What does this fold into?
Amino acid sequence: MSIYPNNRMIEILMVEDSPADIRLTKEAFKDAKMLNNVHVVSDGEEAMAFLQHIGKHANAPRPDLILLDLNVPKKDGREVLAEIKKDPDLKRIPVVILTTSDDEKDVLKAYNLHVNAYIKKPVDLEQFMRIVEAVEEFWLSVVKLPPK
It folds into this structure.
């Protein structure tokens, strides 16, 4: 297991309201090649509070990667993505949509809002684990992430 450059752990923000998907994703990241902290918020409003260090998230770390479900309560993933990409302090954080929707309108809108990747969640458990591992391998091992 390695640590990201400058001897720091990778910080991942997961915006997801499905306990099963949260559990599976955390399990896949637990076996990752890089040390990471997965922070989970269950709705879009809490995601923005985390990113903007509001309230109980005043000391939240800046994520190196955001995993965003489109269908979360209070403020959906499309709205969260739009806010992230409009904000000069947040827009360089890579955002990967991980959702059940394969609607072409959702895919097009996400890319028009400058999402970094759009992945449809598979229903098969083994495939889901492989996808999370592929996200980890690509975004945390292959890609050079922007400085904080």
Q: What stands out?
A: The chain has one domain: 8-137. The longest helix spans residues 125-142. The chain has a mean pLDDT of 84. DSSP finds five helices and five strands in the chain.
